[in-house]
């Protein structure tokens, strides 16, 4: 509850360019976001599913995974999804010194740039643990903090049907930024049902703009 209040206050007081929780509520768009990849054997299958449905998404990648998965990162980029920064090693940012915070963000930006020749402007803190200190750092780096307005709760390791049911019981709203994880295939199984379901309701599924 406390977190919800903090996020609400931040989303109302800070501009979207600094702290983004949802897209425009006027347009019938949804934003799928995938954290913690890229992971061999999972992310490829997810990319195939997204291509099959002509859906674009945003991947918040962990920098330390890039050396083993640079081909996968290039593929995400080539398929015109947005690549975003989810730190180098997924630490709890509220416990880091300012120097280490910067190192985590900048090293990952540099790895993304070296692999895809693209600047990265979006950052999501591991587990959504934000602090004013971190937001200030991102502001100085001209980056946007991106949270989410809907959580698939796929981290609970439940059956994919439960993830689907959650979105049927409480439908998505225009502009929702939806959190998934592509470090396991549960989200893929759930999205095989959810993507056609959302399309049939007239939603378009887009990548967040990297600017
Ligand atoms: Zn994460």
From TrEMBL:
Q: Check the record and name the CDD domains matching this protein.
A: CE4_NodB_like_6s_7s (cd10917)
For this protein, the record's InterPro entries field holds: Glyco_hydro/deAcase_b/a-brl, NODB_dom, Polysacc_deacetylase_ArnD
Q: Record's superkingdom?
A: Bacteria
Listed GO biological process terms: carbohydrate metabolic process
Single annotated GO MF: hydrolase activity, acting on carbon-nitrogen (but not peptide) bonds
Q: Which Gene3D superfamilies match?
A: Glycoside hydrolase/deacetylase (3.20.20.370)
* Residue ranges constituting the NodB homology domain according to the UniProt record: 28-206
Listed PANTHER family: GLYCOSYL TRANSFERASE-RELATED
Q: By what name is this protein known? A: Polysaccharide deacetylase family protein
Organism from which the protein derives:
Colwellia psychrerythraea (strain 34H / ATCC BAA-681)
